[in-house]
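Input record, target 12 of the design panel.
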């Protein structure tokens, strides 16, 4: 779907603020606060008492909402070298027991399936870390045994990714599987939010610049590494939710195997910058028309290595026209937890770029802002 962007509105901070009737930009601006408040809630809930334990398995539940994207990101960061088996599931496995740790996040207080999963885990003596609204069947199912992280910074359901991420990070921190400084991560996001503020023009605003690159195009979001691929899924979801943009999200190795897509990308209309589809309608029809808009490849890289080398190693080819998002200026190589910090930073940038696209394209401010938990598959982010 084409995101038709009103460039003048994008540079008009007062008009953008007026169009943002639901206060979505302010909600995104709480990303750092969400991380800090979740860390504080975890401390008060006793998540730190998990320190020193080595569970049989770490079970990460993916429920409709932000955990669908936060879980794959943390799983990718832990990687195959993680000393504890990491199980990603939609429901509590039947074998769950007192030797396991289960983590779940939701913004939906009445998710009955999650309530059943939490209840099953608690009954079997599993350690449960739960991020959920304070009232409802999910918290009741925890029966006071789950370590509850109540939301302290209210945001719409589709903008709670930082809280979902923080819930997972405080748990893996306590288990000493990863050492992530959430206050440092929150500071990274605060700095990104300052750069992306609606009052800053696009040439100094990374989120607005990204919105301009994505406008009137079909985004092809391809990760060059495992965390980058997880980030691509989140980026596609936030573009769908806030800008009504349908994007393709995968890793570069899978993208290279998509023969039909690669055939379209190799067509003259995609390689000739002087091509005019109105002067040559036949060439612009057929397979290329299935994309509905000219494709734009965005490579998402989070690790220290050269993204171009990673693309060649994993895909065996390159895409010279691709844009690469690899925020090494913001998070220099060698920085502790660089992949995590770059992924979180880019997630925030995509949130704001999506909102700028939606606001400047007249998508938000009407019926769409009441269904912010949609994903590209039909409606839950």
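The sequence produced for target 12 reads:
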């Amino acid at each position: 779907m084409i995101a038709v962007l009103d460039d003048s509105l994008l540079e008009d901070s007062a008009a953008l603020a007026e169009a943002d009737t639901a206060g979505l930009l302010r909600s995104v601006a709480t990303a750092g606060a969400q991380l800090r408040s979740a860390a504080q809630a975890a401390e008060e809930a006793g998540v730190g008492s998990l320190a020193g334990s080595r569970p049989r398995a770490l079970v990460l539940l993916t429920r409709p909402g932000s955990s669908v994207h936060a879980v794959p990101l943390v799983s990718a960061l832990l990687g195959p070298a993680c000393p504890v088996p990491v199980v990603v599931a939609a429901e509590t496995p039947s074998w769950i027991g007192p030797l396991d740790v289960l983590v779940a996040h939701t913004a939906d207080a009445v998710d009955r399936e999650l309530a059943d999963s939490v209840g099953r885990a608690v009954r079997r003596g599993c350690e449960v870390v739960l991020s959920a609204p304070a009232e409802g069947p999910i918290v009741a199912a925890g029966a006071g045994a789950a370590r509850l992280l109540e939301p302290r910074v209210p945001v719409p359901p589709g903008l709670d990714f930082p809280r979902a991420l923080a819930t997972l990070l405080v748990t893996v921190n306590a288990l000493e599987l990863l050492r992530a400084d959430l206050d440092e991560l929150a500071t990274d996001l605060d700095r990104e939010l300052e750069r992306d503020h609606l009052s800053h023009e696009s040439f100094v605003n990374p989120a607005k610049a990204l919105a301009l690159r994505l406008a009137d195009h079909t985004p092809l979001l391809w990760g060059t590494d495992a965390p980058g691929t997880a980030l691509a899924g989140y980026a596609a979801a936030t573009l769908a939710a806030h800008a009504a943009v349908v994007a393709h999200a995968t890793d570069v190795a899978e993208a290279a195997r998509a023969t039909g897509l690669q055939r379209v990308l190799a067509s003259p209309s995609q390689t000739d910058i002087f091509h005019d589809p109105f002067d040559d309608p036949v060439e612009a029809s057929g397979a290329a028309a299935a994309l509905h808009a000219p494709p734009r490849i965005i490579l998402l890289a989070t690790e220290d290595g050269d993204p171009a080398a990673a693309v060649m190693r994993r895909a065996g080819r390159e895409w010279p026209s691709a844009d690469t998002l690899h925020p090494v200026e913001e998070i220099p190589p060698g920085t502790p937890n660089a992949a995590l910090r770059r992924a979180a930073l880019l997630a925030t940038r995509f949130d704001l770029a999506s909102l700028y696209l939606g606001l400047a394209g007249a998508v938000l401010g009407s019926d769409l802002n009441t269904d912010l938990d949609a994903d590209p598959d039909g409606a839950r982010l």
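The CA atoms of residues 38 and 166 lie 6 Å apart.
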